[in-house]
Amino acid sequence: MEEIKKCMRQVKTIISANCGVIDTAGKILAATNEVGEDEIDPSFRAVVSSENLFASTADRTYLKVFIGEQLKYILYIESTDPDAKISLQLIAEWMKTLVKEKGTDAEKAIFIRNVLLDNEIRSEVPMIARGYKIDCNDPRLVLVVRTATEQSAEAFEILQNLYTDSEVATVISMDDTTAIVIIDALESQVSEESRDSFIEETSQSVLACLTSEGCKAKVAVGSVVGSFMDISKSYSDAMTALKVSKIFDGESDLSRYDKLGLGRLIYQLPKPLCEMFIREVFPNEAFKQLDEETRTTIDTFFANDLNGSETSRELFVHRNTLVYRLEKVKTKTGLDLRKFDDAVLFKMATMVRTYIDYLNDTNDNKIR
Amino acid sequence: MASLSFQHVYKKYEGGVVAVSDFNLDVADKEFVILVGPSGCGKSTTLRMLAGLEDISEGEIYIDDRCVNDVLPKDRDIAMVFQNYALYPHMSVRDNMAFALKLRKMPKDEINRRVQEAAKILEIEHLLDRKPKALSGGQRQRVALGRAIVRDPKVFLMDEPLSNLDAKLRVQMRVEITKLHHRLKTTFVYVTHDQTEAMTMGTRIVVMKDGFIQQVDSPTELYDNPVNTFVAGFIGMPPMNFINAVLNVEGSDVFVSFENVAIKLPERYAVEEVMERDGQEVIFGVRPEAITDDITYVTDHPESAFTADVDVVEMLGAETYLYVTVNGSLPLTCRVDPTTSQSAVGQVVDLAVDSNRIHLFDKDTEQSIIS
Asked: Which positions ≥6 away from A57 have C-beta within 8 Å?
């Protein structure tokens, strides 16, 4: 549909007479002057029932457009000059090419999706990729964009527009909540030294683009892979980033596989080991004895790099109040959070606790 | 241009966390309202609910008398500028600004007109063909503003838009955004955790804490008449000094006493809600600039004078901060005039409180005792 409208917009710049495209139900799909779009063409039935390829009314010439054996569209031009038929034939050929390209695009998307999911035979990928004019040798990066189901079509359209006519990225729809942005030609877009900031900028811009258009999205960034053949790894890493970020940093809308930190390590630990660690650090369920206020205090203390003055300022409490609360933590857990080693232990233990909670809440623990 | 109304708005997350509670606010057309508060106070969530990026758990939000609870974000006629102004790196400035309009299939001529107009307002016409990587931080922020301006929205929503800029640029862009508001004559809702931004830009400020509105007022009113200790402590730098004190009534005179110091309060404090607290503990609030070491003032006001040990002196050019201790245990911060101050570290200095600029708060509720 979009291709047909685009075609008509281009026709408008070449042919002065008004032209349009009608579907097989008689509805005007697109017109160069945009008049009568979505309305039924009054002469449609007569044109279809005519045995000829061309038909004319007092002010219009029509041409039936077949793709294969099937009547797909009817073109019209608001002219009955002899040249009108030539114009219609040219537009018809143009449209057929566009429709064919559209079909090719869909096939290409299926192919890329299969490569992402590792469903293509690896040795055959380069050959098929060549057929779709995909350069296999350039480094790639996969971004997974997750939206709510009701916003996924809109998000996909926005992303397609963001990278339309550009050779820097490919956008495909993965399922009803996930779109994929593959950043192509990384080598020509950015030098190796600036790659990190480029990735940050690009992923932030994808997120900002969707948010500013009213789409609530989460963007996960995979790792850079050396060629198109390996995009499944980048995709898988991005999916891991999405998952790990959801467990340890639920509020974050952007996650990067190469910036998962402790979360990545903890995510790989088996549940029994996690439970043993928790029993060791928080004996007698000491963590549960900390109230909400104390937990907020600890979070703020960590967020301020164990800086007491900054923490008390941010919490709007006197420094002595902060010291009192930290002493209370020490009494209950045996950990003095002002000491680096104890602070690290506490931080890791709280993350491991979060991970155990996640495992208990999902079926993952059955799989592991 | 639009008016806004929040009516009993709540945001509750799964697991029982309440990010915003009973938020009620009316914003007039063309007003510049600032939501301010510490991290996690619910200000961004409130903005995102207005934008449609977060569902509203309870209550209603109106834009121009139209309830927008179920209106899609793209149909709310708003534009957002974020902390991370992330421009599209593969597009020129022109295309960055035009993107949202192209998405709406706006005619090319109209897109060009709007982009040119916004670029002129922001003085970035000469940058239109550059790519973002060729722009400075300030220029990038202008382009981000331009992307919002071209939409010609009813309401501008800004979520910490200056947080990523360095201090100098932040001051500059603060002025630019204020000018932009005057020029566009549109409703602005601006979120920040920075009280200086709030005080300098907003026509009205909404102070939030733990999801609740604490006070909605003009910058001057917030500063002069904070309703509770939170607002009093949040607004103003250095923050207000809070002193645990006792109220004493002697005849028609009211005193606050702390650390062997008794300060006589002005006559306006001789009212029932104060007098009835005779002998009770209160929180005595005094801003640093309401304490002076000016010898003339101290001599003329013996009823509010006391002595303190000077711990630290910070000379900042136009003003000097004194960090003092009263009676060896009560720390106070004073902002004094460097042209008259003689105070030095290690000295015992005579200080006096301007008792017309003091605040009294209830010890338990932390609410202001008299308004």
From this structure: A43, A46
